[in-house]
Amino acid sequence: MKNFASLIHALEISNKTNDKINAIIEYLSIAADDDRLWLIALFTGRRPKRPVKTTLIRQWALEITGLPEWLFLESYSNVGDLGETISLILPRPQYRIEKSISQWMCELTGLYNKTDEEKKTYVLNAWNGLDYSERFIFNKLIGGGFRVGISYKLLVNALAKFTGEEESKIMHSIMGKWDPLDTSYTGLIESGHVNADHSKPYPFCLAYPIDKPVEELGPPGEWQAEWKWDGIRGQIIKRGDELFIWSRGEELVTSQFPELQLIKEYLPNGVVIDGEILAVKEGEVLNFNHLQKRLNRKTVSKKLLLETPAGFYAYDLLEWKGADIREQPFTERRHLLEQVIEHIPFGYVLLSPVVQFSEWQQLEALREEARDVNSEGVMLKAKSSVYHAGRKKGDWWKWKISPLSIDAVLIYGQKGSGRRSAFYTDYTFAVKSGSQLVTIAKAYSGLTDKEIKEVDRFIKNNSIEKFGPVRTVKPELVFEIGFEGIAASNRHKAGVALRFPRILRWRKDKTADEINTIEDLKEMLGKYG
């Protein structure tokens, strides 16, 4: 645990990619294979079920310290993280426990079916044998809130450098359905046959936002344009007479989309199709708000299937007749994909349409019409490109339309977590509804470090009320809030929900009297919802 806690600390204090990669490699070089496996599992979100309720953890910490609950809540409000708060208030350890991260994880997994008293004995013994940094990691693991700000790409890069394997092979190896309790590090990383699991998807090829004039990409004839759909990226896989549907988040979602399963008998074995899961009704793509109704459901009712049918817009073919064809040029893969889709006799799985253009100026004009088809813009793919793992600048670009935006006033602030736990960085914004203010969105990103400190000082000096960690502030600071889409919502007081809200800029030139109204948003809803 000591080495693992040191790694987490090293990753937290650095913003440099190479420093993070070197820290992971250093840990891997001294860790046993079981600990290496758990690092991969934890860094890719494969945490076991939470074995202890957070209410019990908090209760036990209060019993040990004797702190009144109000003081604990005040401390929690300032720290911003339950695991860290408990680590800080506990007395110094009375002895030293030396266990590897794999030992701790196996014990925590076994704790799930124990009684509350047995869990309490175990947790208190652990707290008494770990220092602050180790307790913090232990609390995050036992409370189910363990998060690491490490991208898949960075982890794969570190593993590839450590093992000497190709990045694409590493990424493919750690994807898919595997459990650290019945997998070995060697079997996961060093196996020559990465497709042992029939269901295993390929790493997704991702696009960069275009960062230069589109004319600099060269002749238009070297590129294919498609709409950039706002759904869930996925892969449909058929191997061994079984059909699997994976989301980009590495979630097996086959059961959530029964209509897509109907294509099983029309696909040959050894086929992997990349595309986008969307809500599609009567040939039209619906906005993301409709698709959300279909997500994370154990059962899908007939009514929901009729009201919000799902579709799959196919982008690419990654495997054909059991052979990995990602190294073939995009035009060849697209040609094979068209042959595959041709044999599917119903409209649940469709080819993502090509946006025809001959001049860049023509495509720019078409891009401005993207919202008319519930698209976010256009994708540009080099016709000669291979299907690489992750992002590679130059082959695939996403050219999004400008976001919708409104001016709103800040009314609530809450402290962030991790490095931002000392500052108010979580903001709630409102627009006018008659003489009142109605909340419309929360946003966490878009300000510079200097602006964050300015807003933090304003919130501390202009708080009106306090609700736990939340502060109500004088409605004076105006911000331009950008968002990708707008939809009707019964769950929000304003009656509308914004898609991907974020701060575009601080409008120091405007007062709260000049912000947008709820009527403005409803007008947007009628146009873009």
Estimated radius of gyration: 26 Å
Helix content range of the residues, please?
A: 25-40%
Overall mean pLDDT stands at 89
CATH 4th-level superfamily of the largest domain: DNA ligase/mRNA capping enzyme
**How would a crystallographer describe the biggest sheet?**
7 strands, mixed
Number of strands: 22
The percentage of residues in β strands lies in 15-25%
First and last CA, distance? 50 Å
Which structural class best describes the helix and strand composition?
alpha+beta
Looking at the overall shape, the CATH architecture of the largest domain is 2-Layer Sandwich
Shape: globular
The residue ranges in which pLDDT falls below 50 over 5 or more consecutive positions are none
3D structure, described in words:
The chain folds into three domains: 2-142, DNA ligase, ATP-dependent, N-terminal domain (DNA ligase i, domain 1), CATH 1.10.3260.10; 205-400, DNA ligase/mRNA capping enzyme (D-amino Acid Aminotransferase, Chain A, domain 1, 2-Layer Sandwich); 404-528, OB fold (Dihydrolipoamide Acetyltransferase, E2P) (Beta Barrel), CATH 2.40.50. It starts with a helix and ends with a helix. The chain contains 18 helices and 22 strands. The strands form five sheets. Strands 4, 5, 6, 7, 8, 9 and 10 form a seven-stranded mixed sheet that branches. It is of the alpha+beta class. The radius of gyration is 26 Å and the shape is globular. The mean pLDDT is 89. It has helices at residues 2-13, 17-30, 33-43, 54-65, 69-79, 82-89, 101-110, 116-127, 132-142, 152-163, 167-174, 185-189, 288-292, 302-307, 330-342, 360-367, 449-461, 518-528, and strands at residues 205-206, 208-209, 223-229, 232-239, 242-247, 271-281, 284-285, 310-320, 323-324, 349-351, 375-382, 390-391, 396-400, 404-415, 424-433, 436-443, 463-467, 470-473, 478-483, 485-488, 496-499, 502-506.
